[in-house]
Structure formats: structure tokens, C-alpha cells
Prior knowledge:
Largest sheet: 6 strands, parallel
Structural class: alpha/beta
Strand order of the largest sheet: 9-6-10-11-13-12
Shape: elongated
Low-confidence stretches: none
Amino acid sequence: xxxxxxxxxxxxxxxxxxxxxxxxxxxxxxxxxxxxxxxxxxxxxxxxxxxxxxxxxxxxxxxxxxxxxxxxxxxxxxxxxxxxxxxxxxxxxxxxxxxxxxxxxxxxxxxxxxxxxxxxxxxxxxxxxxxxxxxxxxxxxxxxxxxxxxxxxxxxxxxxxxxxxxxxxxxxxxxxxxxxxxxxxxxxxxxxxxxxxxxxxxxxxxxxxxxxxxxxxxxxxxxxxxxxxxxxxxxxxxxxxxxxxxxxxxxxxxxxxxxxxxxxxxxxxxxxxxxxxxxxxxxxxxxxxxxxxxxxxxxxxxxxxxxxxxxxxxxxxxxxxxxxxxxxxxxxxxxxxxxxxxxxxxxxxxxxxxxxxxxxxxxxxxxxxxxxxxxxxxxxxxxxxxxxxxxxxxxxxxxxxxxxxxxxxxxxxxxxxxxxxxxxxxxxxxxxxxxxxxxxxxxxxxxxxxxxxxxxxxxxxxxxxxxxxxxxxxxxxxxxxxxxxxxxxxxxxxxxxxxxxxxxxxxxxxxxxxxxxxxxxxxxxxxxxxxxxxxxxxxxxxxxxxxxxxxxxxxxxxxxxxxxxxxxxxxxxxxxxxxxxxxxxxxxxxxxxxxxxxxxxxxxxxxxxxxxxxxxxxxxxxxxxxxxxxxxxxxxxxxxxxxxxxxxxxxxxxxxxxxxxxxxxxxxxxxxxxxxxxxxxxxxxxxxxxxxxxxxxxxxxxxxxxxxxxxxxxxxxxxxxxxxxxxxxxxxxxxxxxxxxxxxxxxxxxxxxxxxxxxxxxxxxxxxxxxxxxxxxxxxxxxxxxxxxxxxxxxxxxxxxxxxxxxxxxxxxxxxxxxxxxxxxxxxxxxxxxxxxxxxxxxxxxxxxxxxxxxxxxxxxxxxxxxxxxxxxxxxxxxxx
Length: 881
């Protein structure tokens, strides 16, 4: 790098030439010439060092700003009332106590960013437009409610009941579709998830368009986030995908108020410059909105560039400090040289203070949005500099405590009112009245939203119903496999193939895999369906000469996300909510290693429940003893326990092919025909074995979670009830043989397809009995099923004991549970099941011990079994080793 200019005259000639091109031929011509020079510099080896950032000023020059057609005065008045109502909501909710909480500062910093979008850019679904999708920053929800109130979409009673939801009349703290199913589209307050979901939502719109299922060409996805939120790995983790796939339907608006929850985001640096470099490097179009219009005159006067140099010099910690003080302080400490002071010599301290940041200037924000929606071939990020707690004065403006502020002093409230010309008289300020719009304001707002198709946010609850194919369609999987051995994964893939060929619903199915299609036997879909790619396939695949070659296609049906479970889950969520966001129900099947499911993307799984997703998650190689060679970090013994924590996640652990068919078909019925807001988690194994035929009348029990697979032959002597699921059901079946042949004990064998569903049924029955003491007592499915079947109950699964323990209170007799608590490890399946004490010998032993405790066999019988089966009674507990 040259440190000294050896020929200033030549340098100035180059600069003058560039300025002349810009002046006479425009910026685009200048960019073209510079790009040609850059190419030449690469060829000659004279390329300068890469510079990831542009100067610390607005990206769009004043003379290139698109001008709005608006009534600025009316918009300011409306926005001011919305600001006030947002503050009033929080303060009124916390008058008696701060127990309810709430956030004031975030919306006050971004009120204008939302206002410009709502008034001029964001389309609601209409006949000519599918509607834009908004990922609203979670902490600004009071401002969105305040706007909906002046629009007449929310009542004063709802605002008064902010964060008081138990009676069903209030409104939630943050965007929650579960709690406001016709209002909020996406849950975003778990920071980092909103940006991640927005990226994959934008990509899914392209997918639908590419496959010809929906015309999404004119739709945009707007993701709002904070600069502090960008520290979450999920926030920036997939921005390269957006750049790589040229998602020009995606716009991020980052509210850069320079402040986290407790302090500056980059006190010693510049978060806007840092984010610019990250997004530019990922292939995004970056628009910086740093300074308001009042600064333009100062820049025009600054012939020597000293103002920009000072802006580059200051770090964010200083900028936060400046905006927490006043105009005199800014004059003294920002304009800290004679030359800088001369720039503002004709401005009063009040005018210096009103040198606003770009995110608070309607002209600058409008110009940025207008440029973003017109930009093609790249996603756009708008970095808008704002002040946290803007307008809150001594109660939080630009202060460290801004995020936690739940109250404002009387003086601060009065100053807030005066600053935004809010029509509240002095004697009413403390009452915090909710403001409505005047006739002209209401008419203007209605006209603006009418021009954009209607009000937002708004959510669709129902779409076109889809019915599952008739049961006989899957006859091959309902019958016995005979001597042939298959896995439940193979059964699922065969069923999926049948569904994909179905004329009614096949095109709506979205197969999703991270990067192991071949592991799950799905590579046949590469050629048959194609893997979705925005550009098709620009190369000849290495395996082109093979039957099942790797084929990418613009109309591909398979979404293969790479080694990226969070991204794949986000794609699944986009597909699983397509009925709502696109009025096109899609049926996503996302299959993955079960250990890398709820444990890895658990926060997204919870959000999926909140946003009323409908679809199937398939946990492959499930259980702690089935993925025998992979070891501790790969073996899943707890995904069903985690699934049980999500209220509308319906989970199953099937053993046989016919169970898989009945469960998935019932899921399609519930989610797509009846349009229930649930989603399914089904575990699958990679262990091959023979599968019996569907027992007559078993369908209802399979869906409810328990059915009698095989009744014991005898009616006299000791008897036990053996329950199992997944791969361990086969050990339970083998244990019944041991009990009969070795100990003359008969067993009834039960397939427990879902202990989670049995628990939920039991809780529902218990609640009904509690609240209806004079009515005949109801029985849970477990209790009703076990009636007439004598003996203690023994349950064994490939999961932690508390998975089956959930139904203990619903089993009206002795209940023993075996499970795989502890860390997994590598070994043969038989060795692992012996190690975790869930194999046939331990099931038989547990049954004999339960019979002994009930006095039906002698304790010596249990001791004999321990010796007979070679069980080490003194070994360390497996969950402790």
C-alpha cells in the first residue's frame, strides 16, 4: 500500500476525472468505469487491499433520494398518537406494580421505520398481490398494538389488558400467533430466530414460484431486527444463503440504536460498519441510513471532509453518550475543533440537538425503502441508525437503562408530549389516555392501507383442505413382510413415495433433508423429483451415469439444506405455515438424525408450535441403542421427552410399518383435512426386522398411543402386561417368550406408540373428573385398555425412563419402567441393550420382580432369573457410568 502520494497533481487529475463522469454521465457510468479498472487491476496485480466498508455516511446521496407522495403533517400526527398509545399501554399496565413489565424504548427508536413501511410499502394479501410478510421485532409489539388500535382493529379494553392474557381478553407481550391467531404471523422475540426464519421464508417463496405452485414474484419478506440481536449466531448464520441464492425478495431492516439490553453493542467500535462488512461479504446490497436531512447542509459545507473524519473517528460508546445529553454537550464534545465548531456556528443548541439520526428522518427512510424494493438479484439490508428510547428524555433516551424502562417521570412524559405535539392537555397527562384519530387522520390511514390491500399484520387461519389417500392405497405396508426384513425408515420412504405419486396431494409434499438423504434411503428422489435450486444445474454431476444421479432443478421438489439442521427446520416451518402465509397448504416431511432434532433446534420447535405449524418431523435412527456405532453424541434417548414439552407437538415411536402408515395418514387428516393446528414428530429406526400385518381394529389404539398387539394364551397362573415401543417392543415380545417358556408366566403384549399422547389423554380425563365430581367417573385410555387384563405392568422403551413414567398415575396397579438413562456409547445393538438394561432378559426380570412384589411368585424365582440370564447384580448403574 502506498503511504505517500508521490504525484499529487496526477492524483487530483484522476479524482477530477471521476467527478466529471459522475456529474455529466451519472453514477452508473462511473461505477462501470471503476469496475473495468478493478478488472484490469486484478489482471496486472495492482489490486488494492479489500475494503469491506464504505464511508460512515448515508449510502443514498440526497440528489438520488426517491421522494414520497404523502401528507407529511398527517403522518406525523398519526405517528405521534401511536407513540403515545404505545407508552400509555406500558405505563398503565405498570401503575400498580412493575410485575407485568413491558418495553418502551425499542419501539420509540423504530417507530418511524415501521410507520413508513405500513403507510407506503407493505402489501396485505389482495386479489392482485399475495401479501408481504413481516417479521416484527419482538420488543416493539406495543407499537404495533397501538397502531392496530387507531386503525380500529383492537379495542381499548385489549390495550388496558396488555400482558394480562389468562382470561383470554388481553393481548400478549410479544408476537405470538398461538395467542392471537388472526393477528400475528410469526413469533420473533426469541432473538435470532426471526432473521433466520425470514431468510428461509423468502427462499420458500422462490421455491413455490419455481415449482409453479404460487406466483410470489411481487412479494417481499421484511425482517426487522436489532443491532444487538446480530450477536446471536442464528441471526447472521444463514445470510450467505440469501446472498448466494439472490433473494431479492428479502429485506432486512436493522434498527441500529447502538445499544443492547445492558449497554452499547460495540462501545469500542462501530456496529454499522461491522454489519456492513459482514453483509457485503455475504453478497447483500447494503443501504446505510445514518444521518438525517439536517446533516446534508453540513456535509455540503464541509469541503475538507473534516466532518466525515470526525464521524469516522467516534466510536459507538461516544455516540450513545452524545444522545443521552443535550445540544450544548454535542456542540462541545462532538464538534470538538475550531473547524467543526465553525460548521455549526449558525445553529442554536436546540438546532444542534435536532441534527437527527437517519432512522428518525422520514425522507431518508422512505428513500431507503424505495431503493430496497426496486433492487434486484440481491437481498437488501438497511442499517438505520436510531436512538434507543427516542423521545423519552430523562427516563431513558440513549441511556443504559433504556431497555428496562417501564416507567416515565411526569416531567419526561410532558416533554415527550411536547416533543411530538401530542394532543393531551396538562391535566390529563398523568391519566395516560389512549388517543384515537381525527376524521382526517382516520381517512388518510384507511386510504393508505386500502391502497396496499388492507391491514397488517393479519393472519389466515384456514386454507384449502387436503384429504389423505384411502388406507388401501398403502396395502403393501399394511400386510406382513413375511421373511423380508425392513426398517421403519424404509417403510416411511415407501409411504412417502406413494404420497408423492398421489394425484390429489403429491405436488404439495415437500421432502426436506439436511445432508444425508442416502442414509435414509431417499436418494431415489434426486432424479425422480429433483433438488430445488434457484439456478438449476450448471454442471454435469459426477454420478450422471448412474440410475439415481444427483439432479438439481429450478422446479425441484426436494429441499436439501446441507449440514444445517436449523436452516432445514426453518424451511420446514416456512412450508408448514404455507397454508397461512400463502393460502397454499404444503405438507413438509423433514427427516434427520433424531439426536440432531429437538436437542439442536429446540427453540425453533417451540416457535413452530407458537406459529401453528402443520407438518411432519421424522427423527431417523432414533433411540439410544439403534445407532450402534456412532456413540455418545449421536444416540437419542430423550427426543420424545423434549417433544412432550411442546403442547401441540403430537409424537409417536412406532415399531411396525403399518403403525407408520396409520400415524402419518391420521396426521394428514388432522392437519390438512380438519386443519387442526398441531404438528407431528415420528421416530424411525434403521434396524431391519420382519413386520407383521395390521391387527384388525388396531387403528384407533395406534393413534391414541396404546393397543393390544398380542394376548397371552393362558387364563390361569401368573400374568403380566408388557408394554413397549419402537425397537424395544421387539425385546418386549421376546421377553414374553422367555416368561412363558422359562417361568410359566403369561403375558399380554401392548404396543405403546406414544406415551406422550397417553399422558395428555390422562391429564384431560383427570381434569374432567376433578371439575365434575357428581358425574360418572371417566377413564383414561390406559386404564380402559388395561381393564380385564390382570397383572403388573412393565414398560420398556429406548428412551429415558421418564418418557414412560409419564403414565404411572394412570396405571391402576403396579407399574415398572425400563429405559435408557445416561450417555450413549458405541457397541453392537445387543450389547447396548444389555448395557442399558432394556433387553429381553431385563424385561423378563422386571416382570418377575413385580410378580414377586405382588406375592404371585417367590423371590427365589427372581434370583434364579438373575443367575440364568447372566445378569451382574453388582454392576454400576448405567446412567452413572
